[in-house]
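Look over this record as teaching material.
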Amino acid sequence: MRPTPEKPGPGQESVWDYPRPPRVEAVDRRVTIDLGGERIVDTRDVVRVLETSHPPVYYVRISDLADSVVQPAEGASMCEFKGRARYFTLTAGGVTAERVAWNYPTPFPGYEALADRVAIYPAPMDACTVDGETVIPQPGGFYGGWITSDVAGPFKGAPGSMGW
């Protein structure tokens, strides 16, 4: 059962206006990610994936992370739209976060922009920011959306939202 979307305020967009299948778009926004007290990402070379009921998932170039930060992790998953995902463990400042990043090395048509990019779950990080605003992780442990003040929900991942 679809919930009632929140009315977007000034400068907000509703996640209920995002498309399905999802859309990939380049954005001119500064993204930073800190882990273990170290800044592991600081870039404006960002794309985001927008999908109905989900806050945006931000993707940065894998090359924006130092080689010493990124290690392949076990397992894979499949997205009906984007293709087969592989996972990564990130290590910085003496902290190791297991399976907290993923990418689509050979994405399905329409998602080619994701091939050399990685998305990172915000919850295990010290901080993730978009244009200086600290991100709130999407609810639940499965989804990797980044909630900022410019998106209105409700967001998939909260208890009772699996059927959305």
Notes: The two ends are 6 Å apart (CA to CA). The domain at 13-152 is CATH 2.170.150.40 (Metal Binding Protein, Guanine Nucleotide Exchange Factor; Chain A).
